[in-house]
């Protein structure tokens, strides 16, 4: 699975980088949006539905150690980050599981009892497949995604969600 994913990620990068660079073709490449809710909790694989949210938390999208996008959560901990147009330099780390959502604001900001927690809240991310509604875990999903990007069928948006947050 991991090797197959990497192979397909590489293929997708080639396909996207070979795409014509005309203004019209660029318009077909989707925007990547990351939406989720930040939990106010320490722990591992935190279920956001069972803990209070983290209002006004600042979150970063970090891919291969580089900050590629940022946003501030609202008063209910909900955020949407715009990663901009999908490019090969974004797709490779996304499909290679090299991207994560990192909460920059210290946990003490939402609960003073958590001031002693060392570490950072972070979550791996997952692409949402627009066709099946399921995750992109399988080969079929990845092939479908390649087809949708090349065909410009994503409706302009590539939706990405964080998996459960953990203190790392
Ligand atoms: C703050 O964190 C402490 C320690 O995890 C927890 O017991 C408490 O319920 C939290 N308070 C709120 C308001 O969530």
Question: What would you note in describing this structure?
Answer:
With 168 residues, the chain is α+β, with helices and mostly antiparallel strands. The protein has one domain (2-9, 31-167). The chain is built from four helices and eight strands. The chain has helices spanning 2-18, 23-28, 88-95, 139-151, and strands at 31-37, 58-63, 66-72, 78-85, 99-103, 121-127, 157-162, 166-167. Strands 1, 2, 3, 4, 5, 6, 7 and 8 form an eight-stranded mixed beta sheet that branches. Strand 2 and strand 3 form a beta hairpin. Helix 1 (2-18) runs antiparallel to helix 3 (88-95) and helix 1 (2-18) packs parallel to helix 4 (139-151). The structure holds 2-acetamido-2-deoxy-beta-D-glucopyranose (NAG). 2-acetamido-2-deoxy-beta-D-glucopyranose is lined by residues 52, 111, 113-114.
Helix content: 25-40%
Tell me the number of strands.
8
Overall geometry: elongated
Structural class: alpha+beta
How many helices? 4
Oligomer: single chain
User: Number of folding domains?
Assistant: 1
Name the hetero compounds present. 2-acetamido-2-deoxy-beta-D-glucopyranose
Beta fraction of the residues? Answer: 25-35%
**Uncertain runs with pLDDT below 50, 5 residues or more?**
130-136
Largest sheet: 8 strands, mixed
* Separation, N- and C-terminal Cα atoms: 25 Å
Mean pLDDT: 81
Order of helices and strands: HHEEEEHEEHEE
The radius of gyration over CA amounts to 17 Å
